[in-house]
Structures are given as C-alpha cells and as structure tokens.
Amino acid sequence: MRPRPKATLFLTILLAVGTCYYYFGLLLPQLRRQDQANGIATHYGYGGDFYPIWLTGRALLMHRSDPYTREMTRNIQTGLYGRPMDANRPLDHPVDYHAFAYPLYADLLAAPMLPFSFDTVRILLSLLLAPLTAASVILWLRVLGLRVQPSALATLIILTLANYPVLEGLYQQQLALLVGVALAASLALLVQNRLLVSGIFLAFASVKPQMVWLVAIFMLVWCSGDWKRRKTMALSFLLTIALLGLSSQVALPGWFSGWRHVLAGYSAYTLPPLPQLVLGRLFGSAVALGAFALAVAIGWKARRALPGSQKFLVALSFTLAVTPLLLSSAGAAFDQVVMLPGIFWLWSRREEILNASRPVRVLMLAAIVALSWQWVAGCAVALLSLAFPEWARTSAVLFLPMRMEASLPFAVIALLSLLALRLVRGRTINVETALADSNPV
Length: 441
Known about the structure:
Layout: H1 5-38, H2 51-63, H3 70-81, H4 105-109, H5 118-143, H6 150-161, H7 164-172, H8 175-191, H9 195-204, H10 209-224, H11 227-251, H12 255-264, H13 274-279, H14 281-301, H15 310-326, H16 340-348, H17 350-354, H18 358-387, H19 389-392, H20 395-398, H21 408-424, H22 431-436
Helix pairs in contact: 1-6, 1-18, 2-3, 5-6, 5-8, 8-9, 9-11, 10-11, 10-15, 14-15, 14-21, 15-16, 15-21, 18-21
C-alpha cells in the first residue's frame, strides 16, 4: 500500500525540522566552540564563504587591487578571524586558507551587491539562496520531463533544502548554490530550444569551473552532433566566456596568472579528491579515471540525441553525477548539488528499479540508506540530545549523521552506470530492460 501524500509530506516536515535542529542547534554551535578553543573563531561563520568575494570585489572595483596576492589573503583572514593565520600556531588553518580562488569575473558578476555593507549582503543572500535553490528543483524536474503532484513537489523541495550539502551552502552562503541554479536554468532553457540564453547561463555557472567543466564539455560535444541547429548554444557559451575573460583582463591585466597560482596551492590546505579520500590514492584515482572515461563515452554516444530524450537525460545525469568524483577536494560538500538531476531521475524510476534483479535492488537500497541517513540519524541525535545533551556533544555522536555523505555519489553513479553502459554499447535505452541486463541469471 502506497503512503498517503499528506502523511509523506508530514513525515518530510518532521525529518526536515529534526535535521535543521541538528545542524543549526547542535553541530554548528559545537564547531564554533571548538574554533574558539583553538583561537580561530570566525566573525562571519554565517556567510563566511561569500566574504572573500565581497571584500576582493570592493577592493578591485574601488582600488584595482589584485585579489590573488598574499596580502589580500591576509586581509580576508583578518576580516573573518580578526587576524591572519600564523604558521607558528599549530591549531591555525594554513596561511593560504580562504585565499580568493575564483576567476576574477566572479567579482564582476557580484558587482550589484558590492556597494552594500557585508551585513546587508548577508541579509540579501539569506532571502535569495533558499528560494532560488527551491526553484532549481522545479527547473531540474522540467529538464527531466517529470510531472509531480504538488505534495510530491513540496516533499522534494523540503528534502533538498534540508540536505546537508545544501544546509552547509545556505549557512556559508556558498556560490555553489547559485551555480546549481544557473546550471538548472541553462538546461531548462535548452529543452525549451532557447539555445542562446542557455549558453549564457552555462557561462555564468563557470564562476565555479570545477562544477561545470565536465558538463560544459558534454554540451559542446552535444552541439557538435547537430552543429547547424545547435551552434547557437556553443557560440553563445564561448562568446560569453570570452567576454567575461576580456572584462576581467581590462579590470586587472594579468589576472589569469594570479588565479592559476592560487589554484596550484589550493590542494595544499584542502582534503584530497573524494575517490582518493575514500578508496586511497591509487584505487581512488583509477575509479575517478574510469568514471571520467565512461562519462566521455556516454557523452559521445548521446551527441545526436534530442534534448529531453532518454539518451540525453542519462548522459546529462551521469555527467553531473560524476562531477563530485573529479573535484579537486572532497571538502566542498555543497558542490554536490550537481547530483540533483541524477537523484531525481533515479527517483522517478524507483518502481522499475525495485522490481529489477536482486543485486540492483541491493544497490538501490544502499543509495536510499546513504541519502536518507542524514535525515534519520540527524533526527535521532536531535531527539536524544534533549535527554542527554552532554552525550550528544561527543564527536562520535555529533558527526554520526554525516557518516554516509561520502558514499552517496558512488551509489548514485553505480546505478546510473547500468544505463550508461547500455548506451555506450549502442543499444536503445529502456529502463526495465537495462536493469534486467544486470541480472546474471
């Protein structure tokens, strides 16, 4: 018997409330206490990730200051922590921590907000980020051609907003959420055959290149599959990128070399890529390379597919799902918002997947556990903290809801790979048949 929509929505709200209480009421206060004990408490925990953009953008537009210098990094750290990081203090972050690591046009695109104080900017972003992230859910559903009931749509939006990577992005006011919206808008415009504006939005999303470079390659390959009809998107994307780069060069000549230097030192103070963090350097690198190779192969096979077709959607979903494995660091959980279309696509085929072979059902169960663990465990810790507050502050308990975070991309990619491999073999995609092919019997 299927659960009633109202009961599902009510349960969703309870899970979201419990998860938000866990994150904002338990996890963040404990992390702040630890930072204070270590002498590195930040002045702007809320909105701290947007502070470097605000500070460097104002300095660039008012004084033509270079955001990629060591001096500017120290200014960012002083604004966030009250002092620059000290290499002689073992509990401090690395001296390059919070260096401005965006392309210069991130500052230019943020120009409308720069005249305001940072407190005002934080308020504006607070009013914008959650509704825009909710809008991206609607846009991704349109891209995937999924029509859902209002109660189901509300459930998806609530769970998306109460997802740990999104909560972290909302709290830190991370540019990744805006990039996710720009990507969703770009693809929604694409399926509506509005190629010119689609290419522009894809170019705007490149303010975080690590989140879009793979899907940008896929889209350019896709445009080559029918160049006469699709060249508008490719040219608008490339022209917008060129204009952004040229504007940056006019604003600060030689900016690219400074940005490249900052990126070269980024890995020194961040976590390794997700596959290496979970699987080790050698095996993790092999898994990432294999996922990249499969993404390239499926993108090539789908280059002639129509927007909205099953081939196109599988290729798009797989490409975006693979992206977290190819990020330079596993520390940016908020970048995983690019996995939303893959998760939604699998969710829409849940009945077919659950009726497939046993190995596939086990894999689907693993994905469900990995995704729902944060909500269930977060609510459990939140409830138990009311009776045992000191116990809930221990590290073993406090970080329990995040234990499955790293496994989710692997589970989603494994399921999508079943369809991707079928596409690479040049066979027509039918979900039920594709999943049945994985049955060894």
